[in-house]
């Protein structure tokens, strides 16, 4: 369980990026964090593995304050996939790249090989294990970065903008990974601008604006027409399915499935 | 420009007087340009270096026997103290000159000025790119370190651990720099950077008589003194 209490983060230059956030994440939840550029999403998630320390407030991981733990220790609990894969890829072979994280956590031999193979299979890169990462296209490098965190087997996985640069199939891959993690009981937190991906993939949506949480609920609650004004303030446009559902007077239908279901129910 | 000259002067000259003069010019510039507070960090940054210079030279200057005072087994020598004082002043003058230059000269101004003075646009681009790249590289290095620490890289552990961490930190840095060069080249070509005609300057630089006179004076002094030093007329200790 992750608990955030009264979190404030002020950068050295005086930017108040997080301005009082309280959030509680139960084990196994799937949460998306949305909000305009600069609203503090990346700053918030960097507190979960200790890369940033609170200016005030506290972050508890399984009841223990993150402030008292080293990043290297927190890395075993919370895996964070950064937005830009090119700021982490260093190895000459895909396999070695993916093995870096689990190796740092102490895995060796058959256990290490198994975790690498499993992570590569999860993102669909099993056949690329011996290639040079720099020979892969951007979308595959991004999946590689995801695999290199998955292989660490952390109870919580945090994804910062996972779908940028992905085509439809890539997005489906990532949706599959989130579903697998969920099935395994692991917690998934994602920062995203892709509202369709958010509504279709996550059970809970947290909206940030200027360093605070302004909305928090299921996709149907957060994307309900009553909130559109609040969403527009932080430059979030609800998913297409929501807008169609509202036009047709079907209520809040943030996903394609919900929209079709409501249409069928109305027709019947 | 003034700041660059004083930096060069401070570097070349020895003795007491020259660095003091250079410091005075720097001080006048700081006051004149109202740099005040933003200047403080630069002064603070030189302190550790100055302290080590003073300690090492005072107590360990080779072959000096004119003991001034002793602390335990260490003897401070007069020669050492003199050398330390002069070296400190020189470093201070040099560092502060560079700081004044960095604080007072926006990259854009410097580049526009260089180009207007007939420095080729390739050369002025190289100067500008080098200056602008520094903060970007620093930000990139920070992100890379964060990414790898999130993957369990221990940057605080034993020496061996830190040595092993060099490749994961350095490789993304190098490949990033390389791909940036490639992107820049393409962006430049797309904007007709290599087109042969001379560019029109949109923003002319204001340049008063006084500024010009000062610049010439300092420039001349710098050249003369460097020449004197190099030809051995001004003795180096
Ligand atoms: N290293 C930093 N130093 C100073 N300000 C920063 C830094 N990183 C981010 N910020 C600022 O903090 C605010 C929140 O940034 P960020 O958390 O990256 O937002 P988001 O991920 O929602 O786009 C922004 O105003 C941003 O400019
Ligand atoms: Mg961000």
Q: Termini separation of chain B (Å)?
A: 28 Å
Helix content of chain A: 25-40%
Sequence stretches where pLDDT stays below 50 over 5 or more residues of chain B: none
CATH domain class of the domain at 1-77 and 157-162 and 193-237 in chain A: Alpha Beta
Low-confidence blocks of residues of chain A: none
CATH homologous superfamily assignment of the domain at 1-77 and 157-162 and 193-237 in chain A: P-loop containing nucleotide triphosphate hydrolases
Oligomer: heterodimer
CATH architecture of the domain at 1-77 and 157-162 and 193-237 in chain A: 3-Layer(aba) Sandwich
Task: Report the largest inter-chain contact.
Answer: A-B, 26 and 23 residues
Question: How would you describe this protein?
Answer:
The complex is a heterodimer of chains A (268) and B (237). Chain A has 268 residues and is α/β, with parallel strands linked by helices. Among the domains of chain A are: 128 residues, 3-Layer(aba) Sandwich (Rossmann fold); 30 residues, no CATH class. Helix content of chain A is 38%, strand content 22%. Chain A is built from 11 helices and 10 strands. Chain A has a 6-stranded mixed sheet. A 4-stranded antiparallel sheet of chain A has the order 2-1-4-5, with no helix packed on it. In chain A, strand 7, helix 6 and strand 8 form a beta-alpha-beta unit. Chain A is globular and about 60 Å long. Chain B is mostly helical and 237 residues long. Chain B has 2 domains: 104 residues, no CATH class; 80 residues, no CATH class. Helices cover 71% and strands 4% of the residues of chain B. Chain B has 9 helices and 2 strands. Chain B has a two-stranded antiparallel ribbon with strand order 1-2. Chain B is flat and about 70 Å long. The site of magnesium ion has 2 residues of chain A, from helix 1.
């Amino acid at each position: 369980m992750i608990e955030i209490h009264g979190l404030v983060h002020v950068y050295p230059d005086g930017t108040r990026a997080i301005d009082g956030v309280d959030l509680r994440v139960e084990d196994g939840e799937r949460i998306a964090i949305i909000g305009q550029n600069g609203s503090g999403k990346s700053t918030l998630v960097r507190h979960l593995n200790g890369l940033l320390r609170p200016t005030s407030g506290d972050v508890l991981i399984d009841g223990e304050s993150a402030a008292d733990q080293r990043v290297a220790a927190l890395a075993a609990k919370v895996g964070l996939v950064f937005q830009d894969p090119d700021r982490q890829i260093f190895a000459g072979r895909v396999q070695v790249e993916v093995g870096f994280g689990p190796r740092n956590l102490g895995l060796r031999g058959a256990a290490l090989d198994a975790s690498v193979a499993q992570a590569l299979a999860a993102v669909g890169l099993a056949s690329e294990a011996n290639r040079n990462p720099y020979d892969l296209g951007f979308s595959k490098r991004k999946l590689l970065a995801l695999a290199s965190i998955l292989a660490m087997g952390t109870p919580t996985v945090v994804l910062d903008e996972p779908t940028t640069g992905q085509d439809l199939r890539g997005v489906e891959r990532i949706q599959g990974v989130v579903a697998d993690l969920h099935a395994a009981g692991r917690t998934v937190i994602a920062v995203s601008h892709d509202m369709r991906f958010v509504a279709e993939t996550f059970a809970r949506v947290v909206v940030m604006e200027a360093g605070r949480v302004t909305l928090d609920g299921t996709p149907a609650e957060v994307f309900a027409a009553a909130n559109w004004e609040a969403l527009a303030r932080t430059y979030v446009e609800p998913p297409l399915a929501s807008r169609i559902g509202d036009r047709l007077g079907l209520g809040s239908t943030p996903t394609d499935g919900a929209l079709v279901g409501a249409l069928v129910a109305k027709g019947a | 420009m003034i700041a660059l000259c004083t930096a060069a002067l401070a570097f070349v000259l020895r003795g007491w007087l020259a660095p003091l003069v250079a410091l005075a010019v720097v001080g006048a510039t700081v006051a004149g340009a109202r740099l005040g507070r933003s200047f403080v960090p630069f002064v603070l940054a030189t302190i550790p270096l100055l302290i080590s210079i003073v300690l090492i030279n005072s107590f360990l200057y080779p072959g000096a026997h004119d003991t001034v005072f002793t602390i335990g087994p260490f003897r401070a020598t007069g020669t050492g103290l003199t050398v330390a004082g002069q070296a400190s002043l020189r470093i201070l003058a040099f560092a502060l000159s560079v700081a004044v230059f960095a604080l007072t000269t926006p990259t854009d101004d410097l580049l526009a000025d260089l180009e207007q003075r007939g420095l080729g646009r390739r050369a002025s681009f190289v100067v500008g790119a080098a200056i602008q790249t520094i903060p970007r590289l620093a930000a990139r290095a920070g992100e890379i370190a964060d990414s790898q620490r999130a993957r369990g890289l221990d940057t605080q552990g034993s020496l061996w651990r830190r040595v092993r961490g060099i490749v994961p930190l350095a490789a993304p840095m190098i490949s990033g720099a390389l791909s940036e060069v490639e992107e820049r080249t393409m962006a430049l070509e797309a904007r007709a950077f290599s087109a042969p005609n001379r560019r029109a300057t949109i923003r002319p630089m204001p340049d008063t008589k006084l500024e010009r006179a000062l610049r010439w004076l300092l420039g001349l002094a710098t050249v003369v003194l460097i020449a004197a030093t190099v030809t051995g007329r001004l003795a180096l200790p």
